[in-house]
Amino acid sequence: MRWNFRSPIRGVLVHCASAIAIALAAVCAALPGTPLERPLQAASSAGCEGGGFSIVFANGTTLSGAVDTTVPAGSLGTRFQVRGKYVEFDVVSSTFELLNYTFTGAPNALDMTGGVRTPVFERKTPNHRGLVLTGGLSVELSDDDMVISRTGPGLSMKIQAKDCANGGLFQMEPARGDGGTTDITHVLASPASPEPANMTVFYYDNPNFRAREGDTVPFKDTTVVVTARVNFGNDFSPKFIGRDSPQVATRIAQGCPNNILKRDGTTVVVNHCGGVSVWRVASGGRMGAVFGEDAHEVAPPATNCTSNCQAQNRVRGQSVKLGFPFPVPDASRLKPRFPATP
User: Across all residues in the chain, what is the average pLDDT?
Assistant: First the structure.
């Protein structure tokens, strides 16, 4: 998956000392944007045809179309809705926790859902360790792109999203005035009745990557070595695949060891739960979500960058896609779904 840098970031990292945080909060909220810019790029413009987000606030106000504005803090309510043609989710105003990320199943040539509404994430929860977002909400909407950001004393959060049927569709970017890390917990969706049980989303160790692990394959004008890959999918949609996409972030093991068979007949322990993952993200780093071909391409990891990041060109068919099995073999599914001790 590759990112581009078309839209300017509006959020800022607030550097107010704790002793004068209250007095300087308004000043800090008005600081110019930081140089960290990484708006998303979907796998194909065909996957975004007719896409575009609306943001619906608790007081009934709706933003849609071409928008570049700041919504006052008092108008945000506890949470607000983000609704697109292909994707929808809710956002908690004070933390930027994401809730109920779902594909709508709208028709598209690159649809992964079989035309069926498909929940993906129950939540993506950042742990700000007591810090809270208090400023106005900066909103940029254009075509199928959305960038929202908000600040508070010592904290800045940004969410970028695209309303498309697949590709690189979401990323969350925390930044802290103390330079510390932020733990973000991803919980995959477990649809409740009357939705089919086989739409439950689960993490798995992709056996197509294990079968090629260590091989050297082409990538653009160079080569790259195949490494293991954890994806997520369900038992309902044969085309549905996604993965967590970190930049300057490390996954935290939670005590879910799985013995996975390697191509040479030996096994390796993969410590990853089936329904949840926790990522420790550097200040200025990000956690993204990619879907479709971007989730099973063989490409180098994201660069270790938190500011003044340089754009990377789209791969445009110059990477190897290893695919994924459907249904996923039981031996490749990561278990248990949640750790015994949270």
Answer: 87
